[in-house]
Amino acid sequence: MKTLVRLSKDSGMKGHYVAFDVETTGLDPSKGARVIEIGAVIINNREMIDEFSSFINIGKNIPLAAQKINGITNEMIGQAPKAEELFPEFIKFIGDAVLVSHNASFDCRFLRHEFGRIGLSFRSKCICTLRTSRKLFPKLPDYKLGTVYKHLFGSFPDQTQLHRALFDAKLTARIWLKIILKDGES
Length: 186
Description:
- By secondary structure, the protein is α/β, with parallel strands linked by helices.
- It contains seven helices and five strands; from the N terminus they run βββαααβαβααα.
- It has helices spanning 64-70, 74-78, 83-94, 104-117, 129-136, 145-153, 165-183, and strands at residues 17-24, 35-44, 47-55, 98-101, 126-128.
- Helix 6 packs across helix 7.
């Protein structure tokens, strides 16, 4: 059972952004933590035009602490593609896009590590909505994805599941769109 989702054929476009998020088994890939879910949305012409989502079978059990945070179980990743199958597809999906993430240093570090594990290079530029939010909204109580999103939009879309990659990627995309529209970029 493959969990990959692709919606449109417009993902080969140049000059676009891809908002993405990863869910992991821990906080540090150098200590063995792995990506177990990835979600991404292509942003072009100020709208989300395509999405990519998959669990990743890492071939070992997910620690209970990680399961409590993201709700991803061993059963959920059991039939998912392995990193060697999935990440080349993800590279095709993102193309030459600029990546956007909420806490890009974390997410891009994990991508760089996962790509390196399977002999791929990570060349994408990363933009961080967390860092940008700290500059634009200096009086927020914290800069968690949910806090920034609620500050900008008031409430979450129906059926939002925080700490799930595709949902978090979509929230990040909406934050990015709001930020770039505010600044007048296209």
